[in-house]
Amino acid sequence: MRVKDTLAAEFDQFSDSYTEDIVRIVPHYLRLLSSLSEGLPDNFSAANILDLGCGNGNVTALLRKKYPDAEYTLLDASADMLAICRERLSGINMNCVRSYFRDYTFPEDYFDLIAANFSLHHLDSVEKQWIFPLLCKSLKQGGIFTCADMMVNKNSAEHTRLVGEWRKFINASYPDGEKWAWMAEHHDAYDWPDDYTDQKSWLHSAGFRRVDTNWRTGYWVSFSAVK
Ligand SMILES: C[S@@+](CC[C@H](N)C(=O)[O-])C[C@H]1O[C@@H](n2cnc3c(N)ncnc32)[C@H](O)[C@@H]1O
């Protein structure tokens, strides 16, 4: 089995205390999450929304405040994460799909909004260049793909800086060093972030007209790409 095929099990294990942990593991997590909603134009309306790599549903929980009547598709490989979504988000028009992205048939010309918060760094460069055109095709004209994530290629010098800063951030909440040890192992096995400049260029090649930065500090970036 390839390491990538164990991602669902990795996040099943992470699901119980996900939000409590993630805010102390990922710098700026809440700021980046809220930027996905704040970055949308005031006059933008969305009837069909895809939460791509939804995890425990934090993005949908945020967007439902703005678009309470929309139909939400929550896509994730982790069954346990989706079980939490079903429980916590009951009452909204929601379709939970358990699937790896590669096995999902993205409907064409269907979504007004696709949101991915910290899910696409699990795809490597080739996979991002595969999925961006599919996301673009899956959006209606004028639709928006909004995404927040860590954006720095593991081969760049900046990545060494990220690891140093990140270790300090995690150790401030978990001083015994065990959480950082777990994170470093997870990052090694499951994370394939890419530079923002590369991703912008792939988004344009995929057919997006414009890419706007919602919020950014260093390699922690949120953008909106408009079809
Ligand atoms: C770090 S969590 C982010 C969860 C959530 N979007 C949030 O706002 O916190 C990444 C999620 O993406 C899912 N994921 C990552 N790559 C995936 C893939 N290729 N196919 C399906 N799900 C994937 C994982 O199962 C996990 O639940």
Beta percentage is 15-25%
Major β-sheet strand ordering: 3-2-1-4-5-7-6
Number of helices: 9
The arrangement of helices and strands along the chain is: HHHEHEHEEHEHHHEE
| CATH fold node name | Rossmann fold
Shape: globular
CATH class: Alpha Beta
**Architecture, CATH level 2?**
3-Layer(aba) Sandwich
Number of separate domains: 1
Helical percentage? 40-55%
Cα end-to-end separation: 36 Å
- Unreliable parts: none
Class derived from helix and strand content:
alpha/beta
Could you name the CATH homologous superfamily? Vaccinia Virus protein VP39
Could you describe the largest sheet, including whether it forms a barrel? Answer: 7 strands, mixed
User: Which small compounds were modeled alongside the protein?
Assistant: S-adenosylmethionine
Give me the count of strands: 7
Output the radius of gyration. Answer: 17 Å
